[in-house]
Amino acid sequence: xxxxxxxxxxxxxxxxxxxRFVENSYxxxxxxxxSEETGINRTMYQMNEMYPVQELTAVVEALSTLSGKDKYQVxxxxxxxxxxxxxxxxxxxxxxxxxxxxMIQYTEQYLHGAVRRQDERTNPPRLFVTKVNKNLxxxxxxxxxxxxxIAVGIIKGITIYFNEAADYKVxxxxxxxxxxxxxxxxxxxxxxxxxx
Length: 196
Description:
The protein contains 7 helices and 6 strands; from the N terminus they run βααβαααββαββα. With 196 residues, it is an alpha+beta fold.
């Protein structure tokens, strides 16, 4: 991963969740080992602070080496892990009648929009979602950070959160390392929400 972000910062909540992801998926000593290997000497992150994106990329690269997984898989797993916490934080912006399809369709408008309004320092990726038909959404992810694998993981995590993982196929159609990545979410069968 390219660590040259020239002062790009990310919201502290992502770092808090990254540390929690490492400790839950591996163990506490793994976080300490990653900190030592990356030279990041933080024992904790604060939810409302901003931290260099370079720290996140350094941890992901080190975890990739340690686990034997490629960086895309690590980022995707992290994205899946994020879902429960993100939906808890942004619960007030989520319509209780939504399922996976609606959540993805309205993420940019309701969730990312709320993030930008609440803290102008934040810069979540831009998502342009196109409803191709009642069973297919195309998500155009755009970010100079080139972390679309997190978005793929979040989308997969949302299908799990709504107990709809078996009903959907999620896959990137373009290179995950690009600034603009297209991700497809296809409904494989009608869900109870669709039938209602």
